[in-house]
Each structure stands twice: as structure tokens, then as C-alpha cells.
Amino acid sequence: MIGSEGQRVRSATRYTYLGPEGTFTEAALRTLPEAATRELVPMVSVPAALDAVRAGEAAAALVPIENSVEGGVTATLDELATGEPLMIYREVLLPIAFALLVRPGTRLEDVKTVTGHPVAQPQVRNWLAAHLPDAAWESSASNADGARLVREGRYDAAFAGEFAAATYGLEPLVTDIHDAQNAQTRFVLAGRPARPAARTGADRTSLVVWLGDDHPGALLELLQEFAARGVNLMRIESRPTGEGMGRYCFSVDCEGHITDRRVGEALMGLKRTCPKVRFLGSYPRAGVDPDDRSGALGTVRPGTSDRDFVAAADWLAHCQDGRA
Amino acid sequence: MIGSEGQRVRSATRYTYLGPEGTFTEAALRTLPEAATRELVPMVSVPAALDAVRAGEAAAALVPIENSVEGGVTATLDELATGEPLMIYREVLLPIAFALLVRPGTRLEDVKTVTGHPVAQPQVRNWLAAHLPDAAWESSASNADGARLVREGRYDAAFAGEFAAATYGLEPLVTDIHDAQNAQTRFVLAGRPARPAARTGADRTSLVVWLGDDHPGALLELLQEFAARGVNLMRIESRPTGEGMGRYCFSVDCEGHITDRRVGEALMGLKRTCPKVRFLGSYPRAGVDPDDRSGALGTVRPGTSDRDFVAAADWLAHCQDGRA
Amino acid sequence: MIGSEGQRVRSATRYTYLGPEGTFTEAALRTLPEAATRELVPMVSVPAALDAVRAGEAAAALVPIENSVEGGVTATLDELATGEPLMIYREVLLPIAFALLVRPGTRLEDVKTVTGHPVAQPQVRNWLAAHLPDAAWESSASNADGARLVREGRYDAAFAGEFAAATYGLEPLVTDIHDAQNAQTRFVLAGRPARPAARTGADRTSLVVWLGDDHPGALLELLQEFAARGVNLMRIESRPTGEGMGRYCFSVDCEGHITDRRVGEALMGLKRTCPKVRFLGSYPRAGVDPDDRSGALGTVRPGTSDRDFVAAADWLAHCQDGRA
Amino acid sequence: MIGSEGQRVRSATRYTYLGPEGTFTEAALRTLPEAATRELVPMVSVPAALDAVRAGEAAAALVPIENSVEGGVTATLDELATGEPLMIYREVLLPIAFALLVRPGTRLEDVKTVTGHPVAQPQVRNWLAAHLPDAAWESSASNADGARLVREGRYDAAFAGEFAAATYGLEPLVTDIHDAQNAQTRFVLAGRPARPAARTGADRTSLVVWLGDDHPGALLELLQEFAARGVNLMRIESRPTGEGMGRYCFSVDCEGHITDRRVGEALMGLKRTCPKVRFLGSYPRAGVDPDDRSGALGTVRPGTSDRDFVAAADWLAHCQDGRA
Question: pLDDT per residue over C154-163, tens digit each?
């Protein structure tokens, strides 16, 4: 709980994020230009960061949603799928590379115990085996928390972002550690529902779709609603609905913007035929050069551009009026 | 050529049909209430009947389009697919049963030669084998023409509709002859393009779709445009485009009316993705009790009623406005 | 009826065809090398030609099955779909160009009446309008029959194959007449069921498939049985089953040979899921250079070659044995 | 590392599981009849439990794979998808209900601090809010570990299985705590590859499928390989391949056994068309009454039973031999 009286006035300029300070999430947040003029408030968990937005205590929250090594961040997926609706307005892609943080003066051969977030462990496992085969690993609540525990002397070294060193008075002994090539985490900036971010030509649309229980081909039909309109899927992840084993909803990202006709028609198709659909926002894809955004349209399947949709609607009207 | 000067004034009350008089087409035309107040003009061929409409010499033409034994009437399918556009406003279903027409006084044992349209022959083959195994068959240009030739003494008997007997001064010696159970012919009333017939709740929509040449899965995609919107196909027939072996267009009938949202969206899907689509009309299905027309809606797949489409469009607008 | 006693001995070397002499069918038949050593017997109709084979009075029959302008030859499609089974072993493609045959000495300006098979008429309509706008057309039972009637003086000119001139003592006044570019007719050589023609690498497989009555998506599923195995459709034609309006079976040609694994699996899929399937043969595609036959394999979709099928079967066996 | 010399002899009777003692995994393992005669060895992690099997130090490992509230257990999914192959031979479904374990004598009003595995927290959140709104939650490494920490006095109460009370000298103060109805965890027993478990008529088949990178419709095609053979999907979960954002493989369970023809053909279809497929086993579905196993066959789609496959293969052979 951040808020108390008087604070609500300031909530419009406040962004929460998955804390503590010194995490990759904070680093991702600081890549946003507007972060410089916002009050950035670390929260103890993804639900806490998002609930502050729901409660009107913050304008938006930055939380991790997907990691190229570990997969979907289920707390984020589930929080966005349920409860009071939120919407995604931005995404941030951050390359994930770890530094081994130590108290000043520590040498590699002195490191007997290491710590880090459980999610970090599989991403540095090979490096550990090669360089510190005898060091004992213990998990900490976050990478930043691990750094704090090193500061306090509980462990010899912590895996964390290099940027966390200064915050915790540590030194990066080794940098750029990552077992997987191209490891990245994707973060989303979520706020209360409002008009989606403007279309840029290289956008992503997120939604959650619940399928009917009794229908073996329901997932196939979900995909066909996209395929029938030439809309490419970028990500699909099943999540339990909590109603019992074998019941799932699907967290889905597709290419394009809700104001693209092909995307709009696909979404309406899902809305008509699935028990429940939650729209989570359309927003610019990260990692696309601004000058190339319109170029991304080159991948649109023939017959599915806005122009094709408008021409077809005109033709239909002509047919209905007997002028075709 | 019917028209000459002065006639054009009367063309609005003139219907052409595939003649000559006494054919099943005339019998089908006379089942239409308005036929009583129209000038009914037999034409020598399907193209002639339709060209009279195109030339403004008649308001509409009734022509056969499909027979439950012989299949599609290719002259009609091809005439509607090409040339100046026409549209279908009505269909008529006529049970096909033949009478054996003879000159008065002829007995069955006197019948040594029989005639009829080539299309009639396979529909009476079994009856002939059973009752007139030694009679010789020769084809005539139409059933009615066969009756005329019997009148003139060239053959002993003709297969034709019982209603043709009076016209040609003959007697029906045997009636209700038909090898196949439920043999029917479907006729369509075609006019110049105008607003389609009003929706009744039990309608049929006809179109012609050309597929891209180079795409093996193109027919599958055509069908999926219908399936994705829950629109049932009633008939599909391939026709050569005339551009060489292996190039086809498809004459298609689906359930529903062009003003049904699901049908409209399917048609727009075809328009967007196929090189060419010709809309041939939406019109009431024959053979449906007027009181049951709305009941036919019971077969609509969940999520594809007009109500579902409108609700989904509302939802999309809400999402785009940030109010979902 | 050809056969009488003593003839059966010779039936193994007899081929029937759709007569009379001088038709395109005869010309097509004579392109087959073995025709030189067969007795070629013209028959009055497609059913008659095929029934002679069924009755053991001929080894095979050549009949037209498809014309690039007029479409499927329904008599052939229906005869092969029903009755005692027959199989196709060869196909012949014949370019269709007409000659205007006249009695020696006739000049173009003398031609007031022309005749020909009804199917020929739409293929020469434009030529007639341009060169003989005032000539009256009357149909004859076949192109060859029309030539005979010109010989007898009933008409001034007949459209027929140039090769028919000598047979009927006429002269080709104009040759190479054809409104459509690339007009072709496809003929098939049908015999009693036996081992299919050997695989060549560029083959065609023909079948007839009946769909369940009550299933709107049945045609889509038929196509998916092919698509799921990467088998391209070459032709699909709906034909009424004779059981009433709206009931169809489908005459289908696909690329490949029944011994190609992908074709075999698709056929088994149809056999399992459709009420009735009739295999009509696998045979070399006409119009493919013998040296290019294996090259046609280039169009096989990845994962659907025989090699892929065999490798997958091996893998499955390994999995079932616990060795994968 | 369990093994040392001499132990390998006993490895055939040793089962590892995700420890420590007192977890739900141990409770699940003890539901297996053969557990009574096995040495049950708790391991520190899922990878450790499975690696012991790979190393030959244990015959099998029981690990959680899916929870109806929290979703897939990614450590298990990823371990089975990569590294030296393992296979699943059994599954166990365990209802998940927590007990609040305390030191003897503790009353509910005395509980100020509670602990448990992070996964337990969302499953008891509502209960906590209702009954212990002021208690502070801290996560522990496992539910059993939390119980140990209560024993040591670090926390007042731990959420764990009721069965863990005795092990740790605690008392269940409240039992049967679960926010979600029907919460269940599914566990799998994995061993080295061998012949799959025998078919029972109510089976599940697990596999991992990698899709081609460059193909937007690849997931749709994966599903169609199942749908084309009437095989129902039970679970599908995307997992990153580790090769970068946007690259996924799919962990899939379908109904049926690898020796069911429809399943075998679907698997071969995947093998042919996907870059990589790993078969993870066919095994009896848990939670099905043994007497009802054959009854589960009632859900097989017409045309996809083994009988249908065999009949179709016979028909194909007849066609290929000219006997159809």
C-alpha cells in the first residue's frame, strides 16, 4: 500500500515497478523517456505493483511478462487476465546479462557462496560450472535482494544487473554473464483502461481468450479466427483458469493494432465465438526502428490490408444496393 | 430478338423463358403468382432468354439451373457467370415426372418409337426397359418439340410434362413416370441488377468465385471463408474459365441473405482474397413453408447471428475507446 | 451391343470409343501407340462404349471426360461413378480446333446453313459472328454426324475435326477455328479393374467421394484430407447423387499416384471418414515430357515425400519399442 | 548426487522425487502401489530428481508437471524437453488442500507469521485474508521446509500437506484449506526410454514439438495434424527454446496411446512436417475408473478407430492390387 491522503494528487506522475531498486525491471523502466519525470516506486511483487494502479495510487506499473529463457511470467499473465481490467500501453525489451557483484576487494577464488533470484540460476548455470564449480548457490527473493545480502556479508557474491552495483556498494567482478545467447526479458507498462496507444505500423495486440469447456477443437478455431484474416500470432500461452485440471485460457499476442481492420475482425470473431475475451491493449512493438515501422506492413498477407477491407466493404454495399 | 420499336414500353411486363411452350420451364414459370399478369415469351435457348433481359426487352427470364438427376445446367451457370451482370430474384422447385404422350387412340403395345429431350432419357431409362423394352429412342431438341413430332406422326410417343398434352393435341397414356425418387429441377428468375429480394429468414445467396491460378490450397481457403463465419454451403460447382485445362471458377450457393452479417463478412472475405467475385443475388429458398422461415434460423451456429455480430462490433468499439 | 459368339476371343484386342468415326475421340484414340494394333469400334454413346468393356466385349474404352471450355462430360463422370466399377489407365489431351467442312467447290459466301455438335457451337460462336453472321446454325448428334449431313446436302457446312474430311468426302474450307485459346479436351481410357498403371513421377489419381448428408462442413473436411498430406487437387466436380436436390458426390483428381505414401494416406483418410469412396485409377499425366516426370516431384511439399513417410514410420516404430 | 559404488545395484528399486520429505510430491508417490517396495529418495530439485534417473542411480523419478491453479511446472517441462531423453510411464493426480501446521499448543489468535512455498501462497490467499488478515507471510523453499522452520520457532505456522505434520512434530490446526475448488496437481513418473506403458483404452500421450521459425501458420498446422485424425488435445503449453524472444516449442498432451492408429498417424504427421519432435510417452490417464477405460472409447470420432484404420488400409491394398 503506497497511498495515504494527499498522495493521490501525485499519483498521476507515479509509476510503480517490480522492486526492489536495482532489479532489471527498474533498468527497463529507466529506458522510457518519461521515466525521468516520474516518481518511480518499487513494489514487493507484481500483484502489488499492478494493484497500486488499480487503486489509483499510480498511473502505471512496469512488470516483466516474458523471458526468452524462462518463458512467461505467470504472476503477470494471471494478474492481467483477472481482477479489475488493466491495459498495456508500452513494452520494453531488455537484454539480460548478469554481473557477479562482490564486496570491494573480493577475488574470484574467494567466492564460496553465491546468490541470486531463482530465475537467474538457470541463466548462469553453465558459467558457474565453468568458473566457480565449487561455489554453493542459494536463492534470494530478487537479484537486488541478493546484492543486499552480499553487502551484509551473508554471501560472497550475487548475480544481478551491473547497474545494481552502485546502489548496494558492490563491485562488478565479472560482467556480461549469460549462458543463453540473446537472452531478453520483455516488460509491459500497464495502466487503467483508456484509448489504446496510437497505431505505429509495427504494433502488438494482447488479449486473453477463454475457450468453451466441451469442445475439443476450440483452440484450433481460436487460431483460425486469426488465420482467416491473415493475422500472425506472436505468442500463445495456456494458463489454467483455476476451475480444475484441464481447463485453460490462452494469453495471446498477435501482430497489428486493434484499429487495423484485419485485427479488429479477428477480435470480433473471437468475441462472437468464445465465452470470454479480454482485450489487453495494442502498443508499439519494441525493438523496431521507428523508420521501419511502416515497412513492417510488407508482411501483410494479400487481401488483408485496410485498403482491401475498405474496398470489400464498398463492394458489399454496392451489392446490397444492386449496383455491383 | 423479340424487340422492335414500341415494344420496349411493354418490356417491363414481359418474362422470357426457355421454350418452347409446354416445357417444364413454362410450368415452373406459371407457379409464380405474377406470371398471370405477365406476357410470357418462350425463347429458343437459355442465352437467348437471358440476353433479352440484358437488352431490356424483358424484365426477367426463367431458366433451369440445376436438376437433381442431371446436375447443373451449364448453359445457365456460364451465362450468369460471364457477360453483362444479371441477378437472381426468385427460385422455383418443380418435381419432375414425365407423361408418355401419344396421339389419341394409341395403345402402349403400338409404341415402337419414342422421343424426348436427351436429359429426359436417363430419367425414364428404367421405366422404358420395364415397359417398352423394344421401343427405339431418338432424342429431340426439347420435350415439347418431341410432342410436336409425335403430333406430326414422326414418332409414336414422347416423354414430356403432362401439361404439354393439351398444347399439342395429344393424350397422356401413362403419367408420373420417373426413375429417380424426388427428381426435381430448380429454376431461377433472373433480372438486371437491382436491390436483392428482401430477407425472409430462409434465403439462398448465389455467387461465382474465381481462384488464383497458382495456389493449390485456394479452394480450401474459399470454403474456409464460409466456415469461419458459420455459413453453410448448399451447392458448389466447378466450371472451366475457358482459359485452358485446369483453370476453374466456382459457382456457389450458401445459406442466408447478403444482409445477414455472417454472409456479408464471408462475401467480403472472398472479395478480399480472390481475384474475382460476382454476386448473383440473395433470394427466398423455395420449398420452405412461409411460417417456418424464421425457424430456419435455428440452424445458425452459435456466435454467428446478427445479434452476435452487432454485440461484437459494439465491444470492439468499446475496446478502441478504452471503455471495455 | 457388339458381341456375338466368336467375338469374345477378339475382345482383348478391341477398344471401343465414343463414335461415330471421324470424331475428336477417334483422333484422340489414334494418338495412343497401341491403337495401331487394336480393333477400334465406334459406339453410339459413352454408356455404350463403357458397357462394352463391362460386358467383356472390349478391353478398354476411350471417352471424353473434360473440356477446357465446356467442362466435365457428365455422362462419363456419372458412368464411372456408378454401376460395375471401371478404372482409368491412360489419359489423352487433344487440342480442339475445328475445320469448316464443305462439299468440294463450296465457297464461304455460299454457306447459308451450318451444323455441328451442340458442344461445338459455343466454341465457334465468335468465329461464326465474324465470318458467317447470317448463317443459320442447327445442331447435329455429333460433329461427324454433321459432316455426314453435309455430304447428304442437308446443310452447307459442318464444324468438325479436319481429320473427318476424308472420311465423309468433304473439304476443309477453313481450318484451326477456335474461339478460346488453348481449348483442349481430355479423354480417358477405361478398363476393368486391375493393377493401376505404373507410377511415373507425374501422375494423376481419380476418385469419386460421397459425403455424409447431414454435415455442412463435409466438403471442407474432404479437402483437408488432401491438404493435411500435401496432396494437390487438380479438379473437383460436384455431381448429384440422384437421391434428391442438394445431395452431391464429388469427382476428384489429385496429383500423384496411389503408391505415393501421401496419396495413399489421403485416400485412406477419405475412406475412413466418408460414407463411400470409389477409386478410379492412377495414371500418367498427359502433356508432361517423359524426361521431366521425376522433375515434377519438385512441387512436393516438404515433409510429404515417400522418404519422409518412411522415416516417420521408422521413428514411430522406434518410439513404440522404446528406442527413440 | 546419490550414487556411490555399490549403490548402483540398488538403483533398480530406487525412486527419486522432488523433496524434501513431507511434500505433496512424496504424498503423490506413496499412492503408487509399487512405492511400498521401493527406496524413496527425496531430491533437492526437479533437475536433480531426473538427473539421478539419467545417471542410472534411480529407476524412476516422480515430479510435479502441472497444477490446476498455478499451471505448468516449467522446470519439469524444460527438463523433459531437453537433455538426455526420458519417458513418462505413469501419472498421479493429487487433490491439493493445505493444513495450517503449528507447534502443539498454538492457537489461531497466536499466529502472527506464516510461511509456505511461494506456489502455496496464491492458493491460500483468500483464506488468509478471511482468517488471519494481520499475519505476515514469508516464503520458504518448500512447504516441508516451512514446516521445519516452524518447528525451529522461526515462524508461527506453515501451510503444508496435513501428512507433513507428523514428520516435523507439528499439529494441523486447520485442515482442508484451498481457495480454489478442485485444486489438483498432476505428477509424472519418468524413467529411461523403454517400451511405453501398455494401452488401457483411456490413455494420454505426451510430446514436445518444435516449429519451424519462419512460418506464421505453423502452430495451426500442428493442431491440424491432430484434428485431421480425430485426436483430441488435452494440454498445450508453449515454452521458449532459449534461442531468443519469439521462439517457442510446444509441450503437448493428447488423448490416446501411441499404438492407437489415429495417434500414431498424427505423430508421424508431426514428425514429417516439424523440425523436431520428442515423444515423451503414452500412459494410463489418472482419475479414470479401471472399469470405464474401454468406455472412454465412446468419444472417438467416427472413422478414427483402429478398426476404421485397418479397414482403410485393407481397402488401399485392394485398390493397389486392382481388386477394389
Answer: 999 999 999 9
Q: Which residues of B touch C134 (CB under 8 A)?
A: none
The confidence score (pLDDT) of residue D234 equals 92
Final residue belonging to a domain, choices C146, C177, C208: C177
| Boundary-marking domain end, from C168, C194, C220 | C194
Q: How many contacts does A have with B, using Cβ atoms within 8 A?
A: 97
Kindly calculate the radius of gyration of chain D based on its CA atoms and give it in whole angstroms. Answer: 23
Instruction: Report d(CA A62, CA A65) in Å as an integer.
Output: 9
Asked if residues C123 and C96 have their Cβ atoms less than 8 Å apart, the reply is yes
Q: Which domain holds residue C200?
A: 196-324
pLDDT-based confidence at residue B319 (cuts at 50, 70, 90): very high
**Quick count: other Cβ atoms within 10 Å of Cβ D116?**
27
Cβ neighbours of residue B51 closer than 8 Å, sequence gap 6 or more: none
Q: Is A4 inside any structural domain?
A: no
- In this structure, are C243 and C122 located in the same domain? no
Is B316 in contact with A258 (Cβ distance < 8 A)? yes
Question: Does residue D210 sit within a domain?
Answer: yes
Q: What is the pLDDT of residue C1?
A: 45
DSSP H helix total and E strand total for chain D: 9, 15
Tell me the C-alpha distance between A53 and A38, whole Å: 14
**Contact (CB<8Å) D304/C271:** no
Instruction: Check which CATH number belongs to the domain holding C126 and give it.
Output: 3.40.190.10
Contacts of D186 in chain A (CB under 8 A): 245
CB contact under 8 A, A196 and B264: no
Residue D298: burial class (beta carbons within 10 Å; 0-12, 13-18, 19+): exposed
- Please indicate, yes or no, whether residues D241 and D289 belong to a single structural domain of this protein: yes
Structural domains in chain D (count): 3
Q: What is the pTM of this model?
A: 0.91
Task: Identify whether residues A236 and A304 lie together within a single domain.
Answer: yes
Tell whether B304 and B276 lie within a shared domain: yes
* Partner-chain contact A87 B322, CB within 8 Å: yes
Mean pLDDT of D312-322: 94
Residue A319: which residues within 8 A CB-CB, separation 6 or more?
Answer: B196, B258, B267, B279
**What pLDDT, on a 0 to 100 scale, did the predictor assign at position C11?**
83
Q: Are residues C269 and C321 in the same domain?
A: yes
Do residues C6 and C72 both lie within one domain? yes
Q: Which pLDDT score, from 0 to 100, does residue D1 have?
A: 45
Return the DSSP state at C9: G
Task: Indicate whether A215 and A319 sit together in one domain.
Answer: yes
Residue in D44, D245, D249 to test binding to A, most A beta-carbons within 10 Å? D245
What is the value of ipTM here, to two decimals?
Answer: 0.89
Give a yes or no: residue A80 inside a domain: yes
Same domain, C246 and C287: yes
- pLDDT tens string C228-252: 999 999 999 999 988 888 889 999 9
pLDDT at B6 over 60: no
CA distance D289 to C265: 35
C neighbour chains, 3+ CB pairs within 8 Å = B, D
Q: Sheet holding C157-160: strands in order across?
A: C136-139, C113-116, C157-160, C98-102, C171-177
Instruction: State the nearest Cα–Cα gap between A236 and chain D, in angstroms.
Output: 7
pLDDT at residue number B225: 95
For residue D23, is it within any domain? yes
> What average pLDDT does range C296-301 have in this prediction?
67
Q: A-chain residues within 8 Å CB-CB of B228? A: 224-225, 228, 269
Q: Which residues of C touch B234 (CB under 8 A)?
A: 246
The chains in contact with chain B, meaning 3 or more Cβ pairs closer than 8 Å, are: A, C
Q: Domain containing D235 — which CATH number?
A: 3.30.70.260
Contacts of B207 in chain A (CB under 8 A): none
Which one, of D324, B253, B240, lies nearest residue C237 by Cα?
B240
pLDDT tens track for C247-268? 899 999 999 999 999 999 999 9
Residue A1 pLDDT class (50, 70, 90 cuts): very low
